[in-house]
Write a structure and sequence with these properties.
heterodimer, A: alpha+beta, Aldehyde Oxidoreductase, domain 3, Aldehyde Oxidoreductase, domain 4, 8-stranded mixed beta sheet, 5-stranded mixed beta sheet, 19 helices, B: about 475 residues, alpha+beta, globular
Chain lengths: ~750, ~475
């Protein structure tokens, strides 16, 4: 069976953190959070709470033996707030009790005195107040200043995108166990075992080798457990360390939504200049990123925003400025696309507005400016194996853009109160961590004496199918039956110094490391066979479908036989290997370099129907030509594409995170934060792999898949907007996402 | 507070001394160590905790998918509950196989809930086809797949099994024969019948029916004060006609309302209207009485029944007291109801056939969402002249309201665009929407106007034309 996880999933036998039986002496944790968005802590009173029977301990910053710090990039985030609180939901104390309900009762008895300080939730306001987390970043090419005079049309405007909550179905979870000699063992639902290990070691003031982190699998991550699993694991570790017993912390959904970071909302100013044929000559953009109260991964996310400022278009003169604004909401964090989607929305908004001013279809501008082979990105890298135009052409020939446009026109003429709209969304997404050092992975492979094989890698299985892909890669490299292969949990004592399972790159990085270690093993084993068979040095020995072939002729030896023989000959049957992506570099000073191993391209047609009386819409279809390279697991890759697209659709339409003026989130549950359900998704979702694509940098010529498809969802925004304009041709253009039914109806009918 | 509660979980009889208000999900996960049922949202909005709940009715066990997170354990006394572990057999069931074949799972956290819901619908839906099976998972949220592979899984299942299972009177035997259910299901009716001698005395505590809202909003309160689960064992029919009035028992579920032949005859659109009420799992539990007494300003059933001159009968001991639904609400969650009174019957005059009826609901997400604004209309027009009209509106006041001034204005008037526009102006003056998580006050005001227009567009297509609204 290819994807062995599916078997356990459908039987409910996959084990998540909260499913692991807790030892009887386990304490259950609940966190006391800051009720204020900004202020100075005067006093924390825990006396009443401590008296409750069953409470085993309440811990605050002063109880932390190591360094009270969980910041990943910048050390600006305390595990438990000490002096100041900076957002509602910031952990202040952790309560340990014999049950969750006792812990929660005790939490309700904790009192805090806070001297309130001014609250900022708007990034532009934060910028005005000088609250930047890092100094402004600029990526540029050409000279926009002198290019404006060559433009026939110059359009400027403001575009905004909202936040998005991950809603991984499994909430943040961790269990910590004390082990011998002051060490700790943590089971965590994290995308980044090493980050959790580092954070716990810092907090406890012990070296990393005393912290073991194990991740069996996680119930969805989407970026939300890349950095933000650290705190919960560190809190469990802290309590376990102090009380010398197992400690378990699973966030209830409403707390998870309230206190964890989300996709960054952005508000941006753009200016675009074109010649009268629609060629983009210059583009300037300023991104105000709402980073929240701490850096988290915001600077890296801002980098990717700047990398993707031009999406898949060649723009000779470009200046993109990124402002990482500190506000009093939970620290925003990684979310599928990592700042790329926010950038692409702005350039698409700019093109949309420019097309409107020029009285042409945005498709004309989009198509005219698509990257072609050898074009230079604004950060200096050249587009190699560039398929932007191939994807557009295949989309047109596969789905006939003209026919789609015409049928929509006809529909709109025939229907006065129902209007259809369509948009095309081309995407170009760079693959690699933009922080070059992170582009490494290592893998440990054990061949057991019965011929079965265990693989430990840096990657975490979170639904993306890495386990089945690693099995495929090893099976193909070793030429053994896939049933012999098992992928182990991700564990920091087996595989150290791991990069997070993120940036769409885990298959590439871990897969390449796996190929290297499999080849090391093969080499050792076949050498031993060669010696046994007394073959000549130059004879060619290989393994094919578990049979040993010598110069292409079967020797009669099988995998199991040669493994047993190798074991008795004391051949090393374990191999560890590391892979580091070659040829990538980036100069942070000049903002130039080959930041990416390669790019993923694709294009989508999105169609929507709007009920102009109620403002309710339906996404009818998403049709895509996507460059998968040569997918070696198309069913898995399609699943990633479909899931990503629907998350993108949700982000652009109904997923609306709302804070009130005090900085309190009001969409704090699944009853008021709506993500796509089965009726929301388009009836037709068709994804055609681009033909004749190739990618020497990927595994077996495949391409990374996790993030790029999410951005097709952006097309839904413009499809709905087009439907609105079909009803009200003179309507002011909205460039604020999400385009909720409320925003639609207000635009159609509000008198203001 | 504690009660002895006996039930069958999967293939095992369970007897527990427990507070009946405790969540079934917690019990099955922590006491029974059945961890295939997942906790995710804890408010019936994601379906990860779905289980089947089977109740013995005349020698047959009727199974429904429900959200175990908001199901008080007292409600499963004398019943058979089935978790994913209770469906598992040596080899995968055909429903499970179809998910494996089509990659219908990614992270796997929501998957058991989907398998449960789909299997649940195989017991109860009239015809086993793609559409019905998809409807059965309208309460299951998946964040990974975008549902595409889940749809393919359902399609693959129906292609292989729908005919085999649909065409039979004895469905459970067929489901066992096709390995969709383990064999022990056949012994359940007999085992349940022996279980029924459980503690039947009225409980003290907060009266509750489906608990789909109470378990969320007042979880701590019901656990502290106990829960008085209103007896659903009554022998009388839930929905019946008496003297030109239709009577509905308060504990009738939304699902039963949707399926009622009587109500479908009176309101041909009712199934569609209430397909937007919660989810399959919620509709299987939520009751009309609960929806009305909950007094949510946007309660779909309150809004639907308001225009029908609906009368509520409250019981306190031997006493029955009548209250008009339109007079019930006195303020936000304030009712003309004593705490000791329990809603027993909802009664409304059956409108004669010339009456036209429409119900509109708009929410951020069309399905499985709470309305921003909803509205129902009952109207009788003769030669374009409005003889009678009643319009309800939700989400625009502290409680479900009737637009009395609007109706007063429209009565005797001709159905035409001018009068309609004036009616909307009047409506806007009698409402008091507030800005909250469901939308801004301005939005709700505009939306109500649009819904009134929509009523007339749908009911008088010959008079009110779509073209009239084009800007």
């Amino acid at each position: 069976m290819l994807n062995i996880d599916l078997n356990a999933h459908v039987r409910g036998e996959s084990i998540f953190i909260n499913d692991i039986p807790a030892p009887v002496n386990t304490v259950y944790l609940t966190v006391f959070y800051s009720p204020e968005a900004h202020g100075r802590i005067k006093q924390i009173i825990t006396k009443e709470a401590e008296k409750i029977p069953g409470v085993k301990g309440i811990f605050t910053a002063k109880d932390i033996p190591g360094r009270n710090q969980v910041g990943g990039i910048i050390f600006d985030e305390e595990l438990l707030a000490e002096g100041e609180v900076n957002y509602i939901g910031q952990p202040v104390a952790v309560v340990a009790a014999v049950s969750y309900s006792i812990a929660r009762n005790a939490r309700d008895k904790i009192k805090i005195e806070i001297e309130k300080l001014s609250v900022i939730i708007d990034p532009r306001e934060a910028y005005e107040a000088g609250k930047l987390i890092i100094s402004p970043k600029v990526f540029s090419c050409g000279d926009t200043g002198s290019a404006w005079k060559d433009c026939d049309v110059i359009v400027d405007g403001k575009a905004e995108t909202g936040s998005q909550e991950h809603i991984y179905m499994e909430t943040q979870s961790a269990v910590a166990y004390p082990v011998e000699n002051g060490g700790i063992r943590i089971l965590s639902s994290t995308q980044a075992p090493t980050s959790v290990q580092r954070a716990a070691a810092e907090i406890l003031g012990i070296p990393m080798n005393k912290v073991e982190v194990d991740v069996p699998r996680i119930g969805g991550g989407f970026g939300g457990k890349e950095d933000q699993a650290n705190s919960w694991a560190a809190l469990a570790a802290l309590v376990s360390f102090k009380l010398k017993c197992p400690a378990k912390l699973v966030l209830p959904r409403n707390e998870d939504i309230t206190v964890t970071g989300k996709r960054h909302p952005y508000t941006s100013d753009f200016k675009i200049g074109l010649n009268k044929e629609g060629k983009i000559l210059a583009y300037e953009v300023v991104f105000y990123q709402n980073a929240g109260a701490a850096a988290d991964l915001s600077p890296a996310i801002l980098d990717r925003t700047l990398f993707h400022a031009a999406n898949c278009y060649f723009i000779p003169n470009l200046k993109a400025t990124g402002l990482c604004c500190r506000t009093n909401v939970p620290p925003n964090t990684a979310f599928r696309g990592f700042g790329g989607p926010q950038a692409m929305f702005v350039i698409e908004a700019a093109i949309y507005k420019a097309a409107e001013v020029m009285g042409i279809d945005p498709l004309v501008i989009q198509q005219k400016n698509l990257l072609k082979e050898g074009d230079q990105f604004h950060f200096g890298q050249k587009a190699i194996n560039c398929t932007a135009r191939n994807c557009w052409q295949s989309l047109d020939s596969g789905f006939n853009l003209k026919a789609v446009t015409n049928s929509i026109k006809e529909f709109n003429i025939a229907n006065p109160l129902l209007k259809k709209g369509m948009a095309v969304m081309p995407v170009c997404f760079g693959i690699s961590f933009t922080n070059t050092f992170m582009n490494q992975a290592s893998v440990l492979v054990h061949v057991y004496s019965d011929g079965s094989i265990g693989i430990s890698s840096a990657a975490v299985e979170m639904g993306q199918g890495i386990n089945s892909k690693l099995r495929q890669i090893a099976s193909k490299t070793l030429s053994v039956d896939i049933e012999r292969l098992k992928v182990e949990s991700s564990n920091t004592t087996r595989v150290a110094n791991t990069s997070p399972t993120a940036a769409s790159s885990s298959t590439d990085l871990n897969g390449k490391a796996l190929i290297i270690s499999c080849n090391i093993l093969l080499d050792r084993i076949l050498k031993s066979v060669k010696a046994d068979l007394k073959l000549k040095e130059n004879s060619f020995l290989e393994l094919r479908d578990e049979q040993v072939l010598s110069n292409g002729v079967p020797t009669g030896l099988t995998w199991e036989e040669i493994i047993r023989a190798a074991f008795f000959k004391r051949v090393n049957l374990s191999a560890q290997a590391q892979y580091a992506t070659p040829g990538i570099y980036f100069d942070q000073e000049t903002s130039k370099g080959n930041a990416f191993s390669y790019h993923v391209y694709g294009a989508a047609i999105i169609e929507a129907t709007l009920d102009c009386i109620t403002g309710i819409y339906k996404i009818d279809s998403v049709k895509v030509v996507h460059d998968f390279g040569k997918s070696f697991s198309l069913q898995t890759d399609l699943g990633q594409a479909e899931g990503g697209i629907v998350q993108g659709l949700g982000w652009m339409t109904i997923e609306d995170i709302l804070y009130d003026m005090s900085g309190k989130i009001i969409t704090d549950s699944l009853s008021n934060y709506k993500i796509p359900d089965i009726h929301f998704v388009p009836d037709e979702m068709k994804i055609i792999p681009l033909e004749d694509s190739n990618n020497p940098s990927g595994i077996f010529n495949s391409k990374a898949i996790g993030e790029p498809p999410l951005m097709y969802g952006i097309g839904a925004f413009f499809a709905i907007e087009n439907a609105m304009k079909a009803f009200r041709p003179g309507m002011n253009t909205i460039l604020t996402a999400p385009l909720t039914p409320e925003r639609v109806l207000l635009a159609l009918y509000s008198k203001i | 507070m504690k009660k002895t509660i006996r039930f069958i979980c999967n293939n095992e009889i369970i007897s527990a001394e427990i507070n009946p208000a405790i969540s079934t999900l917690d019990f099955i996960r922590t006491e029974l160590h059945l961890t295939g049922t997942k906790e995710s949202c804890r408010e019936g909005d994601c379906g990860a905790c779905s289980i089947l709940c089977g109740k013995l009715c005349n020698d047959i066990v009727k199974y429904r998918a429900v959200n175990s997170c908001i199901l008080p354990i007292g409600a499963i006394a004398g019943k058979h509950i089935v978790t994913i572990e209770g469906l598992n057999q040596q080899s995968l069931t055909p429903v499970q196989q179809s998910f494996v074949k089509e990659n219908g799972a990614q992270c796997g956290f929501c998957t058991p809930g989907f398998i449960i819901s789909l299997t649940g619908s195989l017991f109860s839906c009239n015809e086993i086809n793609y559409e019905n099976l998809i409807s059965s998972i309208d309460g299951n949220i998946c964040r990974c797949t975008g549902y595409a592979s889940i749809k393919r899984s359902v399609k693959s299942f129906t292609e292989n099994y729908s005919i085999k299972i649909t065409q039979t009177s004895d469905r459970i035997h067929k489901l066992v024969r096709y390995n969709i259910l383990p064999e022990y299901f056949l012994s359940i009716p007999q085992r349940l019948s022996k279980l029924r001698d459980f503690d039947h005395k009225a409980h003290t505590g907060i009266p509750a029916a489906g608990c789909t809202d109470l378990s969320i909003q007042n979880k701590n309160k019901i656990e502290r004060r106990g829960i008085n689960l209103i007896d659903r064992e009554s022998k009388s029919p839930h929905i019946y006609i008496e003297n030109k009035a239709c009577l509905i028992s308060a504990f009738t579920t939304v699902k039963e309302i949707c399926e009622s032949k009587i109500l479908n005859k009176i309101f041909p659109g009712i199934k569609n209207y209430f397909s937007m009420f919660g989810s399959t799992q919620i509709r299987n539990r939520a009751t009309i009485g609960g929806n009305i007494i909950n007094a949510s300003p946007i309660g779909d059933l309150s809004i639907f029944f308001l225009p029908f001159n609906t009368i509520l009968y409250f019981r306190e001991g031997e006493e029955l007291r009548e209250v008009r639904l339109s007079e019930l609400y006195k303020g936000y969650k304030q009712l003309d109801k004593k705490p000791t009174e329990i809603l027993e019957i909802i009664s409304f005059e059956i409108p004669v056939e010339e009456f036209k009826i429409n119900f509109e609901k708009v929410s951020r997400r069309t399905y499985l969402d709470i309305a921003c604004v909803n509205s129902a209309i009952l109207i009788l027009a003769n030669q374009k002249i409005i003889k009678h009209v009643s319009i309800s509106a939700g989400g625009v006041a502290p409680f479900p309201m009737l637009l009395k001034d609007t109706a007063k204005y429209l009565k005797g008037k001709e159905v035409c665009l001018t009068n309609l526009k004036e009616a909307c102006v009047i409506a806007s003056k009698e409402i008091s929407p507030i800005s909250d998580v469901r939308g801004s006050a301005e939005y709700k005001a505009i939306l109500l106007k649009q819904l009134i227009l929509s009523h007339f567009l749908k009911l008088f297509p010959d008079i009110i034309k779509a073209e009239d609204f084009v800007c």
